[in-house]
Design a protein that fits this description.
about 325 residues, alpha+beta, Rossmann fold, Tumour Suppressor Smad4, 6-stranded antiparallel sheet, 9 helices, globular, kinase activity
Length: about 325
């Protein structure tokens, strides 16, 4: 059930199906990650599930659609980072139960849902079958779960993935960040947004800034919380912006976010919207959940309840009503 107030509510139970689709990131890389995936598969088989590893995104889409239609599908395990979860979300129909096996660098959604690498814990979550519906953002036709970033962080992500070779670690960001610091010019970005109550086709207001973050869930890289009150269940996106464009300004903004004081920054703007458009002149990249998204312009809307995840009894007892 979707809570208009932003309160997390229980969304029922998953089907009694015994099929699990195990989607793995081809860049899983290290032997430890490969061993973890194998252990999860064995635990699922021992629990009586039929485990299928789709051969391609198209195969994943076809199997998930068929499994949802005949109720044979119990869950899709997204084994990887937040980008892997995004791929699974974009390839599967609404209502597909997803559980995360966190094997990426940040694993922000898994941290929010308290999904771990423990195979027994993952199987227990699937067995308990607790469904939770969360909003998703739609950015130029591509769904995302956590956030979109326009400008500097989009440039860092673009540089990182342009030369990516295998698994990404935290130190992989060092050179892209330094390169972006040297060359990024902080162009002015224009954000038109529509808040609830504004007629379709009209904008509620416009914000101009050089740092633009669109937040669905209160998680960002490095443990930062740009919008700590974001819920993912209110049918709204939190638009957070900073106006000045320089390295010193960026460091000042970063320190404010670290200490939870961004609201006290004089040029910080936060609004909530159901739809927004980000535009600029020139080529400015954006990122979605830590993966490259393309270049502006960017059109984002909210899709209430589009993401279905499985969570533990313990998580629900502490978070849901």
């Amino acid at each position: 059930m979707q809570a208009a107030s932003g309160v997390i509510e229980r969304s029922g139970k998953s089907s009694a199906g015994r099929q699990v689709l195990l989607w793995t990131n081809p860049n899983a890389g290290s032997h430890s990650r490969i061993d973890t995936i194998g252990a999860v598969e064995q635990h699922l088989i021992m629990a009586g599930y039929t485990v299928i590893r789709p051969s391609s995104p198209e195969d994943l889409a076809a199997r998930a659609t068929a499994g949802q239609a005949d109720q044979s599908l119990r869950a899709v395990v997204a084994a990887g980072g937040d980008g892997t979860v995004g791929l699974v979300l974009n390839q599967t129909p609404p209502g597909t139960p997803i559980v995360v096996l966190p094997l990426g660098t940040e694993n922000l959604l898994a941290k929010y849902l308290e999904h771990s690498r423990d195979p027994a814990a993952l199987v227990r979550i699937i067995e308990e079958g607790n469904l939770l519906s969360l909003d998703a953002g739609n950015a130029n036709g591509r769904l995302f779960t956590l956030m979109a970033g326009c400008g500097f962080d989009g440039e860092v992500v673009r540089r990182l993935h342009r030369k990516r070779r295998g698994h990404i670690g935290h130190w992989s960001y060092a050179k892209p960040i330094l390169d972006a610091i040297r060359t990024y010019e902080y162009p002015l970005l224009t954000v038109d947004y529509r808040a609830p109550g504004t007629p379709e086709g009209a904008w509620t207001g416009t914000v101009e800034a050089r740092w633009v973050f669109v937040v669905n869930l209160p998680r960002y890289a490095g443990g930062l919380a740009i919008s700590p009150t974001a819920t993912g269940t209110d049918g709204l996106l939190d638009i957070c912006t900073f106006k000045e464009g320089s390295l010193l300004s960026g460091l000042y903004y970063l320190s404010a976010v670290v200490f939870g004081q961004q609201g006290a920054v004089h040029d910080f703007v936060k609004v909530q919207a159901t739809h927004l458009r980000v535009q600029t002149t020139g080529k400015v990249p954006f990122q979605l959940d830590g993966d490259p998204g393309g270049e502006l312009p960017l059109d984002i809307s909210i899709e209430p309840g589009r993401l279905t995840v499985l969570v533990s009894d313990h998580w629900l007892d502490r978070h849901a009503q």
